[in-house]
Amino acid sequence: MPENAMPENHLPEKGSSAVRDWLRGIEVFARPLPGFDPDTAPAEPSALFLDWLTEAVEAGVPDPHAMTLSTVDEAGDPDARVLILKNADVSGFQFATHTAGPKGGQLAAVPRAALTFYWAELGRQVRVRGAVTPDSRERSAADFLARGATARAEALLGRQSRYLTDPEAGARALRESLARVEAAPDLVDPAWTLFTVVPDVVEFWQAAADRAHVRLRYEREPSGWRRHRLWP
Question: Could you give the 3-state DSSP secondary structure of residue 227?
């Protein structure tokens, strides 16, 4: 290696102008990728989404049901975090959260959201955007009870995203909450809510090594879904 050469994938000094060149030099999509023919896509987007999700699972993609949920607050400031998809069908895409946390507050103020799925191994991305509606108390309770004991105990504390000034006190509170769950396994937090993103738009993106990416957008119209090819 030449004396001044930078080892492959070695991060240059922070703040260095070399960072831009280093990032540009990282290969992308340099692997076998599946094809995608939009002309064979189904008329309704959830069917194609479930096909792609199934292929991601079969390909061994880690956490294939993980998605980025994007919301905005009352001031219009955006926020994003990764959640787990709970269900997907013709009615929409489901996730769950505590209404006392930031996500719940933002959805109460602006009941719209975007979802982003990315399966890097397949070079595939799905983007969803639409109105968000809460599900019934019964179904929300069933989702809560399907969670692990520790996850239920954490939710029952109702302190998501608040400052944790004393980790020991936090651990103690969690132990006490877990004891409540173990003593009453049917205990449900009424603030735990299952939400459905009812999509107006669903876009499918298939990467290609030559950057001639394939994009297909479904747009909801009064008569049903309409498909559009998009420029890369």
Answer: strand
Element (H, E) at 106: helix 102-109
Measured CA to CA, the distance from residue 62 to residue 83 in angstroms comes to: 14
- Residue 93 three-state SS: strand
DSSP of 187-216, one letter per residue? Answer: ---TTEEEEEEEEEEEEEEE--TTS--EEE
- What are the structural domain ranges in the chain? 32-148+190-230
Q: For the structural domain made of 32-148+190-230, what CATH number should be given?
A: 2.30.110.10
Residue 53, H or E segment? helix 45-58
3-35 tens-digit pLDDT: 444 445 566 676 677 888 888 889 999 899 999
Q: pTM value?
A: 0.90
